[in-house]
Please model this.
Amino acid sequence: MGDPAETTNSPGPPPADGDIPALSARGRTVPEAWERSVLELWERGARVRTEYDREGDPPSRDSTMLIVVEEPMAEPRIHLAFPGGVEDLEKYRQEVLFGVHDHWVRPEEGKWTYTYHQRLTAYAPVADLSSSKVRSPFQPVDQLEYIIGKLSRSPHSRRAQGITWMPTADPATDDPPCLQRIWCRLLPVDGPGAGCRGPGNDRVPGAGGRERGAGSVVSGPRPPAPGTRHPDAEYALNLNTHWRSRDAYKAAFMNMYALTDLQRWLAEEIGRRMGRKVAVGRYVDISDSYHIYGAYFQEFNERFLKLVRERPFDRRVWRSDDRRVQAAILAGREQLEKESARGP
Amino acid sequence: MASVLEEMAQAVIDGDGERVAELVKTALSEKVAPSRIINDGLVAGMGVVGERFKNGEFFIPEVLMSARAMHVGMALVKPLLGSGEEKGRGTIVICTVKGDVHDIGKNLVAMMLEGGGFRVVDLGTDVLPERAVAAVREHSAQVLAMSSLLTTTLARMPETIKALEAAGLRGRVKVMVGGAPVTQAFADRAGADGYAPDAALAVELARRLLGL
Model:
């Protein structure tokens, strides 16, 4: 298992030349890639004041970030630096995949103006989001159904995408969506013999060092050879997610955990309709503003960075099939059932 | 060799609810008093977790996993407690305010308070001032803890404090507030007795407010 902390390289803060640093990070698993992205941001992000910084807070760290997860469903799946319990992670996963909190979209009560599930499965632009009773002139579009249908009929398509942003109404709200767009593409998988598997490619993906070509900021281990990761599949579903703005430290891991599970679900659904085996391909996550708020710096230093220094990577993560984790996932599901029984 | 209570405390620290349940059953079969199981096994383990969290040695999910394990043990022991044994260090009513359904921080604080030996009455999310007031009265709570993640719901905090005053309860209940947009200055303006920026400090604040 690659330890992201061992593959970071701190050249110090960039000069304030007005450019937003464009950074990237790569990892075999979700927690590995996420942790590496946060460390990269911490070391090389710009120092920027935001409207959310409170008096006395240091300037936030900010960058544009591209994260590549080579094997999104590989274990370990869970990084321990997220602000909740495994129950909350399961509830959030179901919020994104199945819309278990769509009933909280009630802006007239000061609650939410959207969920990602609601925007992706029932997109219908309105002129005003101050009340959920304002009707759209358009029929709701189930964009996930569109993606599944499009790719199962036309596996070569580059149009399989879904959006969340409503330019008619989101700019006026206090908390507009961070996720803007998801884009999916199928690529055929050649058999293991088609790749360049050889002695040099047999090492564990993610265990190696960092590539840094001239002018490149790509960090992380060398990707595995093509044709070696999905030996039984005919296609791999690639997912790109595009984020306007992102709390890198407190939100991005949970987002990535849920979105990669959405990728798994989409791959299964597309495969079922095609009657073919569709594997989960690489996941790419692009944020325009990927930031750590100045208000978090003390905790970030005194907990996250301290534990990155003091614990090996395998003690900063949990496998999702860990007995304790499984029990907590079941507890999260029971909590959702109780929520559902209580009604909105 | 570690005693069953020491092993139980370690199982809580490890977040291993299954092991905690086994050890609680063992302790009960060995005629260990339920109050000792709670105080010297379950709460002792959670006390270590709280200390490690405060020192930046534990991540939040680990604290919550430990709290789950403690709850597994508590569920087995609480029905065996005699009347009057359950009060612990005091009763705290906790909730997120009306309009706010974000409960992760509130849940963490609730579990840390329980681990600190308090009896916690968790009203959940989206709680109207009158419901909070009714719960304080019904449970004779010494502390009301309110959380808000949204700036749009912050105003519900002073409203709830005013509702406590109107009900004649303000003099006998301390009010503590927290949540991402909350600051000490806001807490002062709202008329709260205290503000805690995180869960570990919330336990210290509750102790301080109750003179423990």
Summary: The beta strands of chain A are 22-27, 46-48, 60-69, 78-79, 161-163, 179-188, 235-247, 278-292, 317-318. The longest strand of chain A covers residues 278-292. The CA atoms of residues 34 and 253 of chain A lie 6 Å apart.
